[in-house]
Structure formats: structure tokens, C-alpha cells
Amino acid sequence: MLTPLRNMLRSPAAGGIFVIVIIAMAAWGVTDIFAGGGGSNLVSAGDRGVTDRKFDATLERILRTQTDERGRALTKEEAMQRGIVDQVFAEMSRETLLTAYADQQGIAATTGAIVDRIRTDPVFQDTTGVFDALRYTQLLDANGFREADYESQIEAEMTIDRLQRVPVEGLRVPNALARLQAAYTGELRSAAWFILDQSMLPEIGEPSEEELQALYEERKDFLREPERRAVSMIRLSPDDFIAQSDVSEQDILAYYEAYKDERYTGPDSRTFTEFVFADEATARAALGRIAGGAAAEAIDSALSTVLRTGRRDVIVNDRLAEQVFARGAQIGSIHGPQPVGNEFVVIRLEDIIPGAATPFENVRDEIQNELARELAVGLFYDALPQFDDLLGTGADLEGIAEGLGAPVLSFAPVDTNGVTQAGQRYLPLVTAPGLLQMVYAQAEGRNTERFGDDEVTWIARVDRIVPERLPEFDEVREQLVAAWQRDQLSEQLQTVASEIETAIADGTSTLEAEAARFETNVESLPRPITRQNTDLQFPRPLLDGMFAANAEGETFSIQGLSGQMIIMQVTDIDRPESETLDLLAQSSALDIEGNIADDLFRAYLISIAEDVEVTTNARALDAYKRSLVTEQ
Predict the structure, then answer these.
(1) Where are the domains of the chain?
(2) CA gyration radius for the chain?
(3) Does the pTM exceed 0.70?
């Protein structure tokens, strides 16, 4: 059989076949089949480019920290559906643009700067603070990095950071502008107020029939009852199979033993010797003797030596605490030197004292429930084919429920928001994603399709359709009376508040006199506040009103809680003195500079985009996305 194949491949026709295949693959974005596995560039600019391999590796690293609403890891296909793939592509395109521009300008990070950045990163140093090449490789591997990719990422970060500093290197905020901003943010104001409550005002009478009729005509659209539908449904989830989950005592005990150390044992304590030195050089000189097991009192260059036993919080230096209490820390291991204040500390781990285990009896029920839940999930998935078989036989909702051993839930007519005429809301209807939309797409007596997510499935039937209608006047008379009274009360409250403002403004009354007239008390701020109001919980409308006033004594009112108006008066305005203003201006200048820097870099980015040609391979990106649909 191989001989005819070899003869065919040597024939002229074979070349034509290869041409057709190559053209077809190019049309689908597959352009680098002979390039040794690197893949085509999804985006490129200058000598910079993002291959499909690099893009895929970046996406994988990002997805290590991404979970769905239930805490489960996202697949690449789910990431694409949520727009994460497009976001990553946009960010890598931006990075490619900026680094290509930096290459043109000769300001890209140098190899020496990259090496220095990596070697001085504490993450890659051993317990004595020296760069550890093996640790570097292991950490990169654990986080899904090749060394070249990580170093490329560091180079891009450093290069883009340099570019972001370019627009603001010569930026200096004028002192006058900084002082103006400081005067605005540093101004202190005080205020007093009282609360005008609806109960302090005369009662509202009853509306006339003419007023109610007019209100009925005015609010017909609001009064109109929407179409509602009575619904029955089956909701099936693992919870329906918990009772069928048989968990043996042996299974519970085996689970406890398997996860005892990880889940049911408290934090351990550790015994260690702490050596304190005057400087780092002295500490490093003593490392050999400490590692060799020398007695603490024999290290005469140490300022002090202490044997301690405790948990992580007994170590002041976070890096030392992390190392000493790491899961893989070994008895006799040396950690440090690390700075603590003006001194340097070295720690020798002497002993590991395991934490106390929670007794089996205390967690037995918890484990049983967890295992029963896992079994119930399996039973749930086993039941789904039966569910579909029952649907295929044409069984009605009740027949399906009987076959599955599940109840049929029935609900009074609801609108598209799942609300009944009486205002009741049924959670089973509104928590099923898309259920009400599907219900409103069906005719009376028809079922929806079976649908759901990973661990719950629904099917619903439209039992009855209640058409949209406008209630008769007599049906809603009480509702109209209540609405008329609410309108009148609100209008009365605002009118009285306006009268109070006017009386105080023209000098015929005072805030205190008006508060006394309505038998309430005047309150005031415990201390003056600024516009930022970072230390007092103060409603924003009141804060805005206070600082909108042009002079002391100005009075205004705003809506408070239901049936209340707050009448407030600005009692004091304290603007910063010249000396204070100079100090505040220094901080204001930094804030202004930061805001201007952001705006300048956005403008700079537009200019860079005009100077650098970025090529996007849409076909290759589409091909990559298509490959994710079947990837698990």
C-alpha cells in the first residue's frame, strides 16, 4: 500500500494538492506550520511581536488567578466568552506598541538593568539574602514562566515605566496653581441644622372625588396591570439527592485521616534561636558557625541571642516569619540576615511543634455532609439522562416529576420580573437564569426546554396567561387616596422648608427660633470639616450644600429620610493662612502633577500610535479563538 502513496507524492499533482492545502490553512490563519512550533504573530510592531505561543502562555498564567462565581477555575473557552481573551490581546497589543517605540528611541531597558532587577528581587533570594539561581528557575516554572518569557516581561515593564515618566520629567506645577488647589481642599467649614419632620406639620385632609378622578386619568399608565403568567416548574439539583447518598462510617474516617494535617490541624509552633547583630557584614560572617550548630553563647559577635518558641507572629520581620514558618522549612535551617530596626537578625530553626488536631467527633458531621453532597452531585448527573428520556416520551410535567421523584412547584401569575399582583416575588423564578424570558416566549400550556447550569436544571410550563388590563377606578380608589396624600405631604414639607429658608435669609427669624417653633433641637458638627470629609460619615448632599455656600450664615434645605427635611446653616468658614497654604500646596502639587501626568501620557500614547505601525493578524487571532472552543 505504501508504494502507490510514494508514487503519488512524487507526481506533479502532489504539488498542486500542497498548494491548495497551504492556501486553505492561510485562510484560517494557520501560517506558520513549518516554523518549528512558534506560531504566527498575532500582533507585531517593529522587531516586537506576540506569537500565539506567548499569548497562550500569558493567558494561562492569568487564568491561574481567575475563578467563576462559584470559585471554580476558568477554562480558556469561558475566558473567551467573558471577554478576557480580548482584554489580554488589547493589553499585549499596547505593550507591543510601546516597546517598539522605545526601541526606535533607544530607551528600552538594557540587559544589565534587567539582570540587576531580577538579582535584587527578594523573591529570588535564599534565606541569607543572596540571589539563588535554582530558586529563580523553580519559581518561574511553578508560575508557568520560561526564563526568556519572564525576562521579556520584566524588560517590557521597565521600558513602559520609563516611557510613562517621559512626559512629566520636566513638569513643574506653578506655585500659584498649587496654592489655589490647596485653598480649595484645605478650607474648613462648620454647620448647624435641625430636622423638620412631617409629624410636626398639620394633618392633610381627604381628597375630593374630582381630585381622585383627575389623578386616575393622570396615572393610567402607572396603574395598568402588565401581563402575568401562572407557572409550574421542576427544579432539580444535587440537594434533591442528599437523602439517597449513603456515606459509610469507614468513608468518613478515611477522609478525616487523609485531610487531617491539611484541614483539621491547627497551626504549628516553632522553636528557634534568634541571633541579633549590629550590622549585616557581622551577621554574614557568623553564618558558617551558626549553620554548623555552634551554641548560641559561642557566637560572641552577636549583640544578643534568644531561644524562642511560638507561632508566626512572634517574628517581627515578615520575610523571616515567612521562611521560618514555611511548610518545607527544615530543622537546623538558617534564615537571614534580615533588618529589624537598625540591627540584623539571623534565625536558626531548632524544632517544629505540630499544632493540635481537631477530634474526629467534632468534625464527623461536617465530613459526612460534604461526602454526601459529593455523592449527590454524582446521582444528579446520573438522573439527567432519565430526565431527557422522560421528555422524549412526551410525558407532562407531573409525569416527569413522578419519574424523577421530584416535586412540581406551582406559582401564582407573575410579570416578567417575577412579581405577583400583590407584590410578592418568587425566588425560584427569578434566580433561574433566563427562565422568565423563556416562559414569556411560550404559549399557554407549553413547556420550556430543559436548561440550567452545572449543578441545577429547570423546566417550566405556562399554566395560565392573565392579559394586560387597566383596573377600574373603584378597584384602585384606596391606592389613589394613598398616592394623593403622599403627594400632598411631600409638597407641604418642601413648602414649609422653603418658608423657613426665606425667614432666616431675610433676618426675620433664626435657625434656633425655627427649631424651637417646631419643638426640635439644633445639632452641629463636632468639629470643622474639609471637602474631603475623610473622618466623618456625612451625607454627600449636605457636604455639597455646605461648600456651595458663599458666605457664613447661608441656609439651605435638602431631603432627609422619608418624611423629613434637613434645614442647615453654614456657621463658619475657615480658609488656610498663608503659612499653612504653603505646606498644603506641596501635597496639592503632587496631586495635580499625577493627574496631569496621566493626561499627558494618554496624549503621548496617541502620538506614539501615529509613529509606530502595528500589524494585527485578525485571522490568526480568530483561529486561536476557534481552537479554544473544544479545549478543556
Answers:
(1) 1-27, 31-186+577-632, 188-202+477-574, 228-244+364-466, 267-355
(2) 37
(3) no
